[in-house]
Design goal:
Blueprint: H1 3-6, H2 17-27, H3 32-46, H4 53-70, H5 75-96, H6 106-112, H7 117-128, H8 134-176, H9 198-203, H10 210-218, H11 234-254, H12 258-271
């Protein structure tokens, strides 16, 4: 059994993937009101656990931008806020790339990560010299946000889309297998051929993607359920049970919270139909 197959979902700060998407949209909207709402949501996330570095550093830059627009602090304080955001950004991502026994320079790692040289230089000035001029810090802001959008937020979206495709293929493969039928009980030693595909379904789900990937794919119309929501005739129900019960049982044995999570999403679907 793979490690992913046995893993419990990792706790994340957001309640749903939609919430993450909404925050991403707000942070990069260019609209001050939406940026504020998104930052407020990130503050709420921070009370639930440790923020991913990409989320934390994006928030730091947006916080500096909004504070700048508010005209509520003096120039020195603004330079401090911008500088701290840059130092955390460069140090955080460079530290994450430190591998092996010999430490590499921040400059070398930043170059590999395609972080604009200007931002690296500002980090050096803020750390080893005096606070950089406000005009330069403001110029660096969109460069840093563009890097984060490209190298964190968009990559997270691409990874999620790839995981959806993998899980969809696994579920489609499972659903397409037609075990042989027998009059009466199957012969001794019979093994449902769908059982071989079950580990592939659950191993396709990373440790934090039960509610974000597997259940949305499983509950899409035409997969686990069609319309009407549940088979109406006794024969249809019997066929549905034979087809899907092995998978549902396997998922329930793999993830103790599978059934409650599925019922919650089913309730959401039924409520909004």
């Amino acid at each position: 059994q793979s490690a992913l197959h046995m893993a419990l979902p990792r706790v994340v700060c957001w309640a749903t993937r939609k919430e993450w998407l909404d925050v991403r949209k707000g942070l990069f909207s260019g609209n001050e009101s939406e940026e504020k709402q998104a930052c407020d949501r990130v503050v709420t996330w921070s009370t639930r656990g440790k923020l991913p570095l990409g989320v934390e550093t994006t928030f730091n830059f947006l916080h500096a931008k909004l504070l700048d627009k508010s005209n509520t602090v003096d120039e020195h304080a603004l330079r401090m806020v911008y500088s701290l955001a840059i130092v955390r950004f460069i140090n955080g991502f460079s530290d994450a790339e430190q591998k092996g026994t010999h430490a590499r320079s921040v400059q070398a790692i930043a170059t590999e990560l395609l972080i604009p040289e200007m931002i690296v230089d500002l980090r050096h000035d803020a750390t080893h010299g005096s606070l950089p001029p406000l005009a330069l810090l403001r110029t660096a802001l969109p460069l840093a946000l563009q890097w984060l959008e490209t190298h964190y937020w968009s990559q997270q979206m691409e990874a999620l889309a790839a995981q959806h495709r993998t899980v969809r293929r696994a579920l489609t493969t499972y659903a397409s297998i037609r075990p042989p039928t027998y009059k009466g009980a199957p012969p001794e030693g019979f093994v449902d051929p769908r059982m071989d595909s079950l580990p592939f379904v659950t191993s396709a789900v990373t440790a934090n993607a039960l509610s974000e990937v597997l259940l949305p794919e499983l509950l899409k119309p035409g997969m686990l359920f069609s319309f009407p929501l549940f088979p109406c005739t006794l024969e249809a129900r019997s066929s549905w049970t034979r087809k899907w019960l092995p998978l549902l049982t396997h998922c329930d044995n793999t993830w103790p919270q599978f059934v409650p999570a599925m019922l919650a999403q089913l309730l959401e679907i039924v409520t909004h139909q």
